[in-house]
Amino acid sequence: MLPEVLTVRLLVLSVVVLLAFVLLLPTVRGAVQQRAEIDRLQAELAAHESERAELEDELGRWDDRSYVVEQARTRLNYVMPGDTVWRVVDADEVADGGTPAEGDAPTEPARPAGPAGAPWYQAMWESVQVTDARATTVDGDEDDGTDVEPGGADGGE
Fold first, then answer.
1. For 106-144, how does the pLDDT look when each residue is reduced to its tens digit (9 = 90+)?
2. Cα 141 vs. chain centroid, distance in angstroms?
3. Distance CA 128, CA 144 (A)
4. How far apart are CA 104 and CA 92, in angstroms?
């Protein structure tokens, strides 16, 4: 008789443990997921707080006049009155020795196009024509667009 009582008690105990496991598993899983979410949000909050601190430091630097002057010089290429400005226009054309690269001929400076009393739009149009003339002489062939049919590729149909 002892084995039957032990078996019934074991069966009841296993049902109670299984029921507790079934009831507690979703709760424990939810708690673990919420803890992971809290950890992720705390890490995100710490990242945002460090970014905020960096931005506040940068904002504080803008109160310093020397920082503003330095930023104006580097970002906007501003200079103070009396400064001598040196600017390399095309550094790729200069060889390592500091002399112009071989095959480079000095070009003549651009001169204003048109007469001195001409309207601005006429001077601009003449400068476009001069530039276009220089470009076609460099390319070697002049493409005036006369080989294109007026109807397009399909003959206008």
1. 555 555 545 666 788 888 888 888 888 887 776 665 555
2. 39
3. 15
4. 12
